[in-house]
Amino acid sequence: MTLRLLLVDDDVLVRSGLRVILESEPDLTVVGDAGTGREALEVAARTDPDVVLMDVRMPDIDGIAATAALVARDPRRPRVLVLTTFEDDDYLFRSLQAGASGFALKRSDPDELVDAIRVVARGASLVLPDLTRRLIASHVPTRPRGAAALPELTGREADVLRLVAGGLSNAEIAAGLHLSRETVKTHVSSVLLKLGARDRTQAVIAAYESGFMTP
Amino acid sequence: MAASLAGTGSGADHPTAPTRLPRAGEAGSAPAGESRGAAGGQDHGMSWTAPTHAPALAPRVRALLAAARPGWPGRALYVLAGLPLAVLYSALFIGLVGSVVAVVYGIGVLLVLQVLAVARGLGGVERRLARTLLGVDIPDGERVRDQRGVVRRVRRLVLAAGTWRALGWLGARVLLGAAMFATLVFGLAAFVALGWETDWTVVTTLPLLLLMALVVCLTLLVLELLVRLTAAAAPRLLGAAPEQRIAALQQSSRRLADRQRLARDLHDTIGHALTASLLQATAARRTLTPAGDRPVQPDFARQALEHIETNTRTALSELDRVLSVLRTVDAQGDPAPFAAPTLADLDDLLAGLRDGGLPVALVVDGIGEGELGEVPAGLQELAYRVVQEGTTNVLRHAGCPLTVAQVVRVDGLLVVRVCNEAATQLDARPGPGGGRGLAGLRERAAAAGGTLTAGPSPSGGFEVCATLPLSGTA
């Protein structure tokens, strides 16, 4: 199954470089590119990509607002992977809050970038788990501990959510709880459903925002 | 590296999973608290059990006294040193009065200045004394010595509020010294009177001893009160004057703003150019490496190299400018405030681009010789950035067509325009957006009360145009 990608960056050189790098992977295909947030929304509606690689700072609509608009249009697809030049915490957290599934640095190794795209598309783990967890933990306003704001989770689901919020992948959770991967997948899906989260990144944010997890 | 990012390399992750689990289970906050607790426990074990084994009495007594009244040796020393110092300061005041009287006879001006300089110097000594012995935090005031030229130094010496406050402090020290002296003398006299000039009988011994203890306690109490009064007054009279503190704050916030601007510039220019170059280089390498059914694309690679060349050249010239700013120091050897580029720097900028092959002309209109200062500095920088971004984008996206940069002052407006002829590079994409900088520049133009437009021009090229009010908020 090929993943359909949309590249959004205001620099044509970044886009053309990325296009060549990503198209050289057999399972990735670039279905469109855009230079502004507004253009990204148009092209996304036309091409129906699986993953949007989104720059943050752009003319007219920036990457954060464009991400929010894409999520509002359809919470299931496309997933958004934010691409940044530098690790600017505020921008990154705001883009996750807006609904991005993860972020990657433009300077990262091509293999890492490609892996990040696959991870975002599959949703079995966080992209850059440690960095993402730290970013969310340090930016979410601290609340008193307690699961009050979360809907009723079973004991197992609460365990799974704790581990997801700790940045563990499905495979790692399965190994840690002595469960099969399929069971873990089922638990994760029902946690996401109960939290109303579109992916695990949003589930981690919800876990910290509710005070279920504390920084 | 692929496995570590995806987190699906289960073979490699298995060994780490058990150790990570409990940590995640404790909601992330536990490990920090745990390790802190463990370290604290160790500390206690080390420092509190060891002395019971060692019978060294002196350190324990010292620790006991220090715990009862922290810093008391310093305060005692301060009181004792206060007595001779008060005598010295009284002499200084007498000298001041004397020299003021001498002014009447026309010879005392230098003497007055001398006394004031000595008073300032003593203020410095007093500041250090209070810091060391009383543990009071007193910021340094301005240094008259740092002023250039005798006249300026003398003027600051006489006019600075610090001088007169230092003098006031010395006067207060004289009074406090007298009070301390009186307290000590009175206490000692009462002590001696009770001890040696009364009849000690079996009946009177206990009340007399109690009275003597009371005298000692009262004396110490009054001294302690006096020292506290001193410590409270010291920062007000010896510290930096409010206007100096405000000036220092303003300077540091200016420095901070400078640094933030520098960071933003580095991000927008060099950071961005390097990122684009990196991606182009990575892509070029891929197109030159045959793999599977993918053909080698030397054309793409050649073009990518051209882009990298341009990007690197402009990044280096920006780096050069930033470094020269960072290296500049002012007369005192402090780093100079970050000098923003001005319209006068445009010649250098365009000369660098001409070296890169871009035929570019600069037209400045409505700003005559010596009138540059009439354009606000913030506006000049913004204009420079517009020209920089516009011309660099031409190189990036259109190759080397004929380009004109225009800066015109007309009717209270500064119009900055960069336009180029049709692209010489066949594959150039004149799409919207252009360089990353345009988004930021548009924001800055709006903040300055102006506008920035960018788009294809009728002649088939591209045009960036900023219209900025001269009386704007830039």
Question: How would you portray this structure in words?
Answer:
Chain A: The modification 4-aspartylphosphate is found at residue 55. Chain A: Keywords: DNA-binding, Phosphoprotein, Transcription, Transcription regulation. Chain A: This is Two component transcriptional regulator, LuxR family. The complex is a heterodimer of chains A (215) and B (474). By secondary structure, chain A is an alpha/beta fold. Chain A folds into two domains: 3-122, Response regulator (Rossmann fold, 3-Layer(aba) Sandwich), CATH 3.40.50; 138-209, Orthogonal Bundle (Arc Repressor Mutant, subunit A), CATH 1.10.10. Helix content of chain A is 52%, strand content 13%. Chain A contains ten helices and five strands; from the N terminus they run E-H-E-H-E-H-E-H-E-H-H-H-H-H-H. In chain A, strand 4 (79-84), helix 4 and strand 5 (102-105) form a beta-alpha-beta unit. In chain A, helix 2 (37-47) packs parallel to helix 3 and helix 7 packs across helix 10. The N and C termini of chain A lie far apart (38 Å). With 474 residues, chain B is α+β, with helices and mostly antiparallel strands. Chain B folds into three domains: 72-240, no CATH class; 254-339; 342-474, Heat Shock Protein 90 (2-Layer Sandwich). Chain B is 66% helix and 8% strand. Chain B contains 15 helices and five strands. Chain B has helices at 2-6, 10-13, 17-25, 30-53, 57-68, 72-104, 109-134, 150-159, 161-196, 205-238, 242-288, 298-327, 346-355, 377-398, 437-447; strands at residues 360-365, 403-410, 413-420, 451-456, 462-469. A five-stranded mixed beta sheet of chain B has the order 1-2-3-5-4. In chain B, strand 2 (403-410) and strand 3 (413-420) form a beta hairpin. In chain B, helix 9 runs antiparallel to helix 10, helix 11 packs antiparallel against helix 12 (298-327) and helix 13 (346-355) packs parallel to helix 14. The longest helix of chain B has 47 residues, at 242-288. Chains A and B meet through helix 1, helix 5, helix 6, helix 7 and helix 8 of A and helix 1, helix 3, helix 11, helix 12 and helix 15 of B.
